[in-house]
Amino acid sequence: MSYQHILLVTDLLSDADEVALKAKRILAGSPEARLSVLHIVEDDMVRFGFELVPASSLSGDFDGEHWQEARTKLTQFLERNELNAVNSEVTAAISNSKGIVNYCREKEVDLLIIGRHERRGIAAWLVKATTDSILPNVPCDSLVVKLDQPVPK
Fold it and tell me: Whole-angstrom Cα distance, residue 131 to residue 134?
């Protein structure tokens, strides 16, 4: 199958390069595909009357230090892995899974590439992986790259 729009989702941790390597292999087989790269910053929620409102929408601070650091890391990630993305984006979402699913729907992604850390023991029960929330809801094919234990941030 030939893909037209591939989305690589990254957490920008040290093992993200393994996921980028898989994406490059897929892109080599689909030279006409365009690549988008997405990093989501989970948004804090603020109670505003009876509604929950994303904090970023109230402050409008998308150029703060935290955001600039994320954009810089994303640029370094793209350069280090020699990825030619037509779109690279740092965005906020209430949750990673909602942000990814919405992006796939809005941008007509036909292949999602994402890493999944292996968790064992009690961590496997307590921590729900983002991929577990995404896969039943994402409207496209998915490639989940198996990673080892989560790396420290």
Answer: 5
The 10 Å CB-count burial string (b at 16+, else e) for 98-125 is ebbbebbeeeebbbbbbbbbeeeeeeee
Find the angle CA(77)-CA(78)-CA(83) to the nearest 5 degrees. Answer: 140
Residue pLDDT, tens place only, 58-74: 444 556 677 788 899 99
- The sign of the CA dihedral 105, 106, 109, 110 is positive
- Check whether 32 has a pLDDT greater than 80: yes
Gap between the Cα atoms of 73 and 17, Å rounded: 12
What phi and psi values does residue 135 have, to the nearest 5 degrees?
Answer: -55, -40
Per DSSP, 111 falls in state E
From first CA to last CA, the distance across the chain in angstroms is 36
Phi–psi pair at 76, nearest 5 degrees? -65, -40
Q: How many helices (H) and strands (E) does the chain have?
A: 6, 7
